[in-house]
Amino acid sequence: MDKNSQTQLEAAAFRSLISHLQKNTDVQNIDLMILADFCRNCLAKWYLTEALEQGITMDYDQAREVVYGMPYSEWKDKFQSEATAEQLAAFESKQQAKL
C-alpha cells in the first residue's frame, strides 16, 4: 500500500472513531480510561500535538471541540455524569498497576 492510501485510510478510521464517540455519549471518559487507557481528552491532546507539530495554530479547547463535536463545557453539561466510587476505585487500581 502506498503512503497516501495508508494516510487516507488512517484518517477515515480516525473520523469513524470520533463519530462513534460522539454518538455514544453514554460512554464516560472514565470508562474509556479504565478499559482502554485513553479517553476523548487524550484524543484531543494527540490531535493538538499533531496540529502544532505541523505548524497549525490551535489550542486545546479547539482540539476538544473537534473530538467532542461541540464545546467541551456543553458536552460536559449535557452528557458527563459524576464518577461512581466503583469507577474511581477501578481507575485508581489501574493507575497503581502501572507503577
Features:
75% helix; globular; 99 residues; mainly alpha; 6 helices; single chain; 0% strand; SMc04008-like fold
Structure description:
It is a single chain. The chain is mostly helical and 99 residues long. The protein has one domain (3-98): SMc04008-like fold, CATH 1.10.3340. Helix content is 75%, strand content 0%. The protein is globular. The mean pLDDT is 96.
Helix content: over 70%
Overall morphology: globular
Secondary structure class reads: mainly alpha
**CATH class type:** Mainly Alpha
- What is the name of the CATH architecture? Orthogonal Bundle
Rg over C-alpha atoms, rounded to the nearest angstrom? 15 Å
Q: Describe the largest sheet.
A: none
Cα(first) to Cα(last) distance is: 39 Å
Mean pLDDT rating: 96
Extended strand count: 0
CATH topology grouping: SMc04008-like fold
Order of helices and strands: HHHHHH
CATH H-level superfamily: SMc04008-like
Low-pLDDT stretches are none
Continuous helix count:
6
User: Beta-sheet strand percentage?
Assistant: under 5%
Q: What's the number of structural domains? A: 1
Short description:
The protein is an all-alpha fold and 99 residues long.
Ordered list of secondary-structure elements with their pairings:
Layout (H helix, E strand, L loop, with lengths): L2 H21 L5 H8 L3 H14 L6 H9 L3 H8 L5 H14 L1
Helix pairs in contact: 2-6, 3-4
